[in-house]
Design goal:
alpha/beta, Rossmann fold, tRNA 5-hydroxyuridine methyltransferase, SAM_O-MeTrfase, S-adenosyl-L-methionine, methyltransferase
Amino acid sequence: MKMYEDYIAGFSEPANSLVEEMERYAALNHVPIMDRSGMDTFLGLLRIQQPKQILEIGSAIGYSAIRMIQALDKASVVTIERDADRFTTAVEFIRRGGLNDRITIIEGDALELASEILPPIHFDALFIDAAKGQYKRFFEKYSNHVAPGGIIYCDNMFMHGAVLMADEEIPRRNRTMIRNLRAFTAWVMEHPDYDSSLLPVGDGILIAVKRHK
């Protein structure tokens, strides 16, 4: 599998200087961002979908929001981040990228924010990339903001292989998170209101297309 990932990576578009700086910052400061293979696949899916309005749960330093905007000429992103330091860093990267008019970043805990703080619109896409043990709660709270036919994307569905491990092999501090992630995966894959797929790229990407009722 690794040889195929390396082969595919050879065809990736070269990153611009801001993106490369953000990748270096993330590595030095241990900020989790999507790896190149996962990001390339995610952006490819977005280019097919062509969403105009995107909601992101988990900005971190703004890496994925900036990559989405750079890939989609007509899109705008609303993104939520609860960590104050990462929020401040993301604001600065977004400013330096000249993207303040297309990326709106909100500081706060996505599970505690009032729905009224979001624009009164239905989003074409929702990207969940925050606390993995809370994915079901994020999904339940924000899926109502997604338009019929819209798509919900979730990253890190494999948690670096931990979802395949027996409980006793997982560090005790992570066991509840992994159990919750497994339960969420089973729940959404069987959800009658979504057509869902799990892609074995990057660290695992889940795609749930909201059905028209």
